Automatic annotation (TrEMBL):
Ranges where the Carboxymuconolactone decarboxylase-like domain occurs: 55-136
Keyword entries, A-Z: Oxidoreductase, Peroxidase
Family annotation (InterPro entries): AhpD-like (IPR029032), AhpD_core (IPR004675), CMD-like (IPR003779), Uncharacterised_peroxidase-rel (IPR010195)
Any Pfam family: CMD
Protein name: Putative peroxidase-related enzyme
Protein origin, superkingdom: Bacteria
Record flagged with keyword Oxidoreductase: yes
Keyword Ribonucleoprotein: no
GO MF annotation list: peroxiredoxin activity
Amino acid sequence: MTTTQPPTDERRISYLPVPDASGVPEGVSKLWAKAEANMGFVPNVFRAQAVNGEQFQAWWNYFNLLLNKEGYLSNAERELVAVVVSGVNRCLYCAVSHGAALRHFDGDPQKADAVAVNWRHATLTERERVLCEYAEKLTLRPAEVTEADLQPLRGVGLDDHQIMELVQVIAMFNMTNRVSSALGFQPNAEYYAQSR
């Protein structure tokens, strides 16, 4: 695989060398091109994780299914949970990039910014508050989660499919936060201005 070491200034997006387009599988280069066409840029997480191209594609397929396809929770709810988990884990990349997505789907930039720092200071519905509480507990204290923790979720109208999806989104972001933080992934500059 061909890699190029990024410069040691603000343009560095990962602690590891990032492959160029000639050093990734065809599926990865197609995904990069699709992102460029749809978003106007290639997310740095796509570039940085392509060090292991097949593993990146497997991650993307599951991530895409959970976050970008029609699901049981709304797009805004899934992004809300993503930002809560990422904020709790202090994952810069995911808090910034999914903060942009939350601003887009929810339409409230102030709320998205508050959620990224401390969701308790955001103006939330009762359902959103319950989602945030559950996401925080499962992130910080998974060994303490019991069946009783599902009752508040059911109390705000979540069914079994929505609960399963909620748990999967929380788990996906805990994993992705750890990969991003461990390898120093830096968010694209474009995310900071989106939906403001």
